[in-house]
Amino acid sequence: MAATRKILHIDMDAFYASVEQRDDPGLRGKPVVVAWRGARSVVCAASYEARVFGVRSAMPAVRAERLCPQAVFVPPDFVRYKAVSRQVRDIFARHTDLVEPLSLDEAYLDVTANLSGLPSATATAEAIRSAIREETSLTASAGVAPNKFLAKIASDWNKPDGICVVRPHQVEAFLTPLPVGRLPGVGKVMESKLAELGIATVGDLRGIPPQGLEQRFGRWGRRLHELSLGIDDNPVRPERPTVQISSEDTFEHDLPLEELEPHIRRLAEKTWAGYQREKDRVARTVVLKLKTSDFRNLTRSLTPATHPGSLEVLCEIACKLRERVEMPASTRYRLVGVGLSGFIDQHDLQAQSDLFERA
Questions:
Q1: Segment 78-96, tens digit of pLDDT
Q2: How far are the Cα atoms of 25, 53, 266, 325 from residue 263, in angstroms, in the given order?
Q3: Residues 43-70 pLDDT 10s
Q4: Would you say residue 324 lies in a domain?
Q5: 239 in a domain, yes or no?
Q6: Are 273 and 224 in a shared domain?
Q7: Pair 4, 130 in one domain
Q8: Does the reported pTM lie above 0.85?
Q9: Range of the domain at 209
Q10: Could you tell me if 175 and 162 lie in one domain?
Q11: Do 176 and 255 fall into the same domain?
């Protein structure tokens, strides 16, 4: 029988806002909103003082300002946030090689066999939280559980600066009263479909035979039943290969298609700069993303015979992809993005080239 995994989910508390409050004592205790001001801006982070007023990440900045007129708006500084994130990841690395970052402020860690010799996953989580506090003057919350999705739910349980431990024998009792929306992959649409069946909690879901769920929702129904039992065999993956590198921008005023070229070129430069950090992976596809003034998303892509090998080629292809946008000339666009995708390993690309040369 396989040993039970010991998984941590470490989540920095109000990360961007907390960095700002740490670095500027004048912001401490105040409702801080990390966002650019403006009609098109969204909230990157909100301090706990701002959350009391209902301000949340991804909320339009103008709504945040209405909810909390006394909020202090601070423009984001991702260079600083990334530097702190690297500090935190260095702390993780002292305890395990199995770290799967999800973003700058959260990660999964498999500490089934930890490097620090601590006697338990709980002790490891506490050691990590203590080191983060001492070395960064910030706080983190932790979830400790036998698998990833339980650890992620648990890390949110006692925020901020808290820890929640779900031991194997506690899994079903922990899950039973939770709303089904807490399960990974259950969004608003699925939640409403389950509500039509009288399913509101994970306990309700567990009471439905798996065959019935599978008949109604296909393979996803079977997966829902497994989640209701706390079953999740997904391992912590320390290396997540790049899927796409992209940059996008929302305009202050909507623009017609023919005025997008300078913005496409500017964003292509940012994307290309990110791509230069990829050492062993090659992108083959150029992606142009657009959002119309009525919030319709459009994506156009091209995979040329030869992978884009320079910024100039990337700009040329991205701009030319506008010709594939079949919308009325009167259409206005509020957002544009430029991306590179279709990544493969460098040696695979070379193998393909060798194959074509021999053909």
A1: 889 999 999 999 999 999 9
A2: 37, 36, 5, 16
A3: 989 999 999 999 998 888 999 999 999 9
A4: yes
A5: no
A6: no
A7: yes
A8: no
A9: 171-228
A10: no
A11: no
Binding residues, as ranges, are: 11, 105
**176 and 162 fall within a common domain:** no
Number of domains in the chain: 3
Per the domain annotation, does 356 fall within a domain? no
- 25: Cα within 13 Å, side-chain hemisphere: 0
Residue 152, domain member (yes or no):
yes
Say whether pLDDT at 353 is over 50: no
d(Cα 98, Cα 6) in Å, to the nearest integer?
11
pLDDT digits (tens, 9 = 90+) for 222-268: 889 999 999 998 899 886 667 789 999 888 889 999 999 999 999 99
Nearest-CA neighbor of 27 among 10, 14, 12?
A: 14
Locate 73 and state its tokens.
Answer: 């708006």
Q: Contact 182/267 with Cβ under 8 angstroms?
A: no
Q: Which residues are catalytic?
A: 106
Q: What is the mean pLDDT of residues 167-195?
A: 90
Output the CA–CA distances (angstroms, integers) from residue 291 to 95, 175, 301, in the order listed.
43, 39, 15
Q: Which residues are annotated as a binding site for Mg(2+)?
A: 11, 105
Please, are residues 287 and 340 in contact by the beta-carbon 8 Å criterion? yes
- The CATH number of residue 214's host domain is 1.10.150.20
CATH assignment at residue 298: 3.30.1490.100
At 122, list the tokens.
């709980």
HEC string of the chain equals CCCCCCEEEEEECCHHHHHHHHHCHHHCCCCEEECCCCCCCECCEECHHHHCCCCCCCCEHHHHHHHCCCCEEECCCHHHHHHHHHHHHHHHHCCCCCEEEEECCEEEEECCCCCCCCCCHHHHHHHHHHHHHHHHCCCEEEEEECCHHHHHHHHCCCCCCCEEECCHHHHHHHHCCCEHHHCCCCCHHHHHHHHHCCCCEHHHHHCCCHHHHHHHHCHHHHHHHHHHCCCCCCCCCCCCCCCEEEEEEEEEEEECHHHCHHHHHHHHHHHHHHHCCCCCEECCEEEEEEEECCCCEEEEEECCCCCCCCHHHHHHHHHHHHHHCCCCCCCCEEEEEEEEECCEEHHHHHHHHHHHHHC
Q: Is 316 exposed, middle or buried (0-12, 13-18, 19+ CB in 10 A)?
A: middle
